[in-house]
Amino acid sequence: MSAFTVPVRVYYEDTDAGGVVYYANYLRFMERGRTEWLRHLGFEQDQLSRDEGVVFAVRSANVEFIKAARFNEQLEVSVELVKYGKASVNLQQHIHRGNEVLCSGDIRLACVDADSFRPKAIPAAIMEKFRITNG
User: Fold this and answer.
1) How many CA atoms lie within 13 A of 39 on its CB side?
2) Active-site residue 115, yes or no?
């Protein structure tokens, strides 16, 4: 499967006093990428919560910061499905500036009940999309 990508512009609010992206904001960019990836697959997070009673929560994030991004740069966030189970999803994410990888992350999501936050099986429609896109 090829990675899904979405553009992200670095705004002033994303940077520190030196105009460099604050490290925690790379996680925010990755979150935007995951939201758009789910939307691309046909799933809105608010509808999943309301209709299916599930939300995806970050269980773990192993992030490597490689190079700095700066104010007003155009970046690209990628999301690639690596593995999925009954109630979890492993993703590989990268933040690129052109051909340069600025940040990479191994992200594990847990599918949980929207009310109790206990693990819950990923809905069948999403599992089917994972099967199709993961070949």
Assistant:
1) 9
2) no
Considering the candidates 16, 51, 113, 115, report the single residue annotated as catalytic: 16
Confidence (pTM)? 0.94
Per-residue model confidence as pLDDT tens for the chain (135 residues): 579 999 999 999 999 999 999 999 999 999 999 999 999 999 999 999 999 999 999 999 999 999 999 999 999 999 999 999 999 999 999 999 999 999 999 999 999 999 999 999 999 999 999 998 876
Domains along the chain?
Answer: 4-134 (3.10.129.10)
> Could you write out the three-class secondary structure of the chain?
CCCEEEEEECCHHHECCCCEECCHHHHHHHHHHHHHHHHHHCCCHHHHHHHHCEEEEEEEEEEEECCCCECCCEEEEEEEEEEECCCEEEEEEEEEECCEEEEEEEEEEEEEECCCCCECCCCHHHHHHHHHHHC
